[in-house]
Here is the input.
Amino acid sequence: MSRSDGGDARERARETARRAQANVVQRARGRVIEKGETKASDGNLANLITIARILLAPIFVWLVLIDGGQNVTLRWVATVLFVLAIATDGVDGQIARRRNLVTNVGIILDPIADKVLTGGALVALSIIGELPWWVTILVLVREIGITVFRFSVLRDRVIPASRGGKLKTVFQAVAISAALAPFQGTAEALGAPGAVPWIIGADVVLMSIAVVLTVLTGLDYLRQAYRHNAGRR
Here is the structure.
């Protein structure tokens, strides 16, 4: 390669880097919190809340895994972080809609945040042996599969969350929160071991309902997709 060819290659690389930087700056420009009709920034308040939810996931997972999940204090901290993160699920969406801050980045990040939070919690519970791996795998396959499917048809149509899907999300959040919370350890520490069987039973019932709803709503999405495709033929 001649020196001129090498110089041209470096110049092209620099030009590509400049364009990429300019693209990032351009996408960052726009409204961050103000309500209006002009372009919203990818770094707007709603998206920042979504990113914060994603960043909370590795923190509470780490807290659960410390000492094999036996540290009651750390488990309560992890539970509070999970509840805080999952409770803000509707906050970022409401802010984005009410202030017209909806962006493509936010549309992509929001469902990813939900899956990272629930998936991280389920995997952590399975690692410490408090949740069967088949439950975690079943839920993750459904959640990731349906999310990928919804993104794959996004150009043709938007598939909104069904009532069953919303109910599933609520039961998942409640069931996982109850499973993360160290109610058993707390009851034993307070000298109330008789409450442990009731706590275990309640956890099993909540998680069972969440799993059933997860499977049924997943099958319903597939049924709707089949009927939609059959109607276009």
About this structure: The CA atoms of residues 165 and 217 lie 6 Å apart. Residues 31-232 form a domain with the Four Helix Bundle (Hemerythrin (Met), subunit A) fold (CATH 1.20.120.1760).
